[in-house]
């Protein structure tokens, strides 16, 4: 039995609220169970120096956790510098979102996605990627409505979910009690079409077989399909 009493293949409740901030070109609050992440998209009519005069757009991301997002208070990283974990996660978010972008169609502009974890209960990076795509889509919709771009540069939704081996069973969408005890832990980033973007998977105390990895990918596909349905419903 899972600590949450969910079935092995059952996601936590998915809630996506859009336009939750006043100034950002796109924003949402994504809630995957008790993991809550605020995602905003900011448009800039410039690109990093290495892309100037290339005709290509850019999508980048930043990630952070509020001091009481977890059980005990953390010091703000602004005071201490970003941890290696934070840097790795925000690079993952940027890479993942760019996988679903036609950067030529976006044009020579940058959209920055900020993902701030308000409350953490496992799977924060996956929620940030999933919510980040919603914020990105809303910003792109504004560009299209204004006539600044002709065709939608977002060729496919991008979403992510965690899966793992908990108590010897393959389970979908790990919450914190499962994540902290899982023998195998994996994060799966996929396009709406089902293609894999990135897999982060490792043994956390026990090894895993090829068959078990296949089970986790199957679970991830089912979970991502639910997340994509929620994304598309959120952006209209």
Automatic annotation (TrEMBL):
Keywords: Nucleotidyltransferase, RNA-binding, rRNA processing, Transferase, tRNA processing, tRNA-binding. Phosphate binds at residues 85, 123-125. It comes from the Bacteria. It catalyses: tRNA(n+1) + phosphate = tRNA(n) + a ribonucleoside 5'-diphosphate. GO terms for molecular function: 3'-5'-RNA exonuclease activity; tRNA binding; tRNA nucleotidyltransferase activity. Pfam families: RNase_PH (PF01138), RNase_PH_C (PF03725). GO terms for biological process: rRNA 3'-end processing; rRNA catabolic process; tRNA processing. It is an enzyme of class 2 (transferase). Its EC number is 2.7.7.56. Residues 10-139, 156-222 form the Exoribonuclease phosphorolytic domain. CDD domains: RNase_PH_bact. InterPro entries: ExoRNase_PH_dom1 (IPR001247), ExoRNase_PH_dom2 (IPR015847), ExoRNase_PH_dom2_sf (IPR036345), PNPase/RNase_PH_dom_sf (IPR027408), Ribosomal_Su5_D2-typ_SF (IPR020568), RNase_PH (IPR050080), RNase_PH_bac-type (IPR002381), RNase_PH_CS (IPR018336). Phosphorolytic 3'-5' exoribonuclease that plays an important role in tRNA 3'-end maturation. Removes nucleotide residues following the 3'-CCA terminus of tRNAs; can also add nucleotides to the ends of RNA molecules by using nucleoside diphosphates as substrates, but this may not be physiologically important. Probably plays a role in initiation of 16S rRNA degradation (leading to ribosome degradation) during starvation. Homohexameric ring arranged as a trimer of dimers. Belongs to the RNase PH family. This is Ribonuclease PH.
């Amino acid at each position: 039995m899972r600590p949450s009493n969910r079935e092995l293949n059952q996601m936590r409740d998915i809630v996506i609220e859009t336009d939750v901030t006043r100034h950002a070109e796109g924003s949402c609050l994504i809630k995957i169970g008790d993991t809550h992440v605020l995602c905003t998209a900011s448009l800039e009519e410039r690109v990093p120096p290495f892309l100037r005069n290339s005709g290509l757009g850019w999508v980048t991301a930043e990630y952070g956790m509020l001091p009481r997002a977890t059980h005990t208070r953390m010091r703000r990283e602004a005071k201490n510098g970003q941890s290696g974990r934070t840097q790795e996660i925000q690079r993952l978010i940027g890479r993942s979102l760019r996988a679903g972008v036609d950067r030529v169609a976006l044009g020579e502009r940058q959209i920055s996605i900020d993902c701030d974890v308000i409350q953490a209960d496992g799977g924060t990076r996956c929620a940030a990627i999933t919510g980040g795509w919603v914020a990105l889509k809303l910003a792109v919709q504004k560009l299209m409505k204004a006539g600044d771009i002709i065709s939608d540069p977002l060729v496919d939704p991008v979403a992510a979910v965690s899966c793992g081996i908990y108590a010897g069973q393959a389970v979908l969408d790990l919450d914190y009690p499962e994540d902290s005890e899982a023998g195998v832990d994996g994060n799966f980033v996929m396009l709406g079409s089902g293609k894999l973007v990135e897999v982060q998977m490792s043994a956390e105390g026990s090894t895993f077989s090829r068959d078990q990895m296949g089970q986790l990918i199957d679970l991830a596909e089912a979970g991502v399909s639910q997340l994509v349905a929620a994304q598309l419903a959120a952006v209209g």
